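Field notebook, page 313. I keep forgetting to write these up properly, so this time I am using the form the group agreed on. The chain and the ligand, zinc ion, are recorded exactly as supplied. Prediction of the bound pose follows.
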Amino acid sequence: MPRVWILLAAYLLASTFAAAQDQDFSKVQMKVSKVAGNVYMLEGAGGNIGASVGDDGIVIVDDQYAPLADKIAAALKNIGVTDKPVRFVINTHYHGDHTGGNMPFATKGATVIAQDNVRKRLEAGGKAGNGGSITMDVKPAAKGALPIITFDHDVTVHLNGEDIRALHFPAGHTDGDAIIFFPKANVVHMGDDYVRYGFPFIDVTAGGSVQGMIAACDKVTTLLPPDVKVIPGHGEISNLDEVREYIAMLEGTTAAVEAALKKGSTLEQMKKDKILAAWDKKYASKFVTQDVFIETLYNSLTNQKNAAFVQHN
Ligand SMILES: [Zn+2]
């Protein structure tokens, strides 16, 4: 595995699941990239932020970690388009590396919007994990960090001449994923249904499944214009060809586990047989190893409850 992946994976593991107060954010710098039109992407620590920046103010998709809120606000101001504040935050899902900034942005007057299940999971806390060797405790969020507006199927924010639409894709990375469309700028933010660090982490414990992740990615690639710019949950700005390559990996690995299930292999046998060896070199990381991804797929495919909820939109 290339060294850069090992570092990235270790970093991701830490940034995704360690409590924010255990991390040193003082050295994190915000990198701002123009994606298209008035949509920008901010990279710091945690998930990518998408931002619509215009005369009406600012709408951000995800907000990384609380200690980074001032840096995020400064970077948005530095773009030089508007001095107006962040008016809305849309969360793509409940994980702390995407929602950690909810409280500071809400305190400064922003309204946080998310799918119903995001609020429920933030409020209740609980467990996150792949149903196997990855398992983490999630502390309940403070009241001030909870989304104020929630939606079941979809919601649209009409600002900056854009119809920013958040659409729920059930049972993908989690059970509360929203993919966010900026049709005028021709940009989509896919949250962690599409990531670029290798085999994806799927929060099976929180209702995620590989089938739902494939369904979400399929819908994006079939419905959106071919030249749409794609903001992944983690990693560089992308495009539909790369999303298709990712789908092919998800489908190929899923088929390998399905075939092994059909043969009557146990989970342990699948790991021993290294049934995902063909993808290992390109996609395995220290965070989601081949064994971890076999567990993820096995648990997705044998959990009928998740599979039943995939076709919601
Ligand atoms: Zn996530």
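OBSERVATIONS:
- The longest helix spans residues 240-262.
- The two ends are 38 Å apart (CA to CA).
FOLLOW-UP: compare against the apo run.
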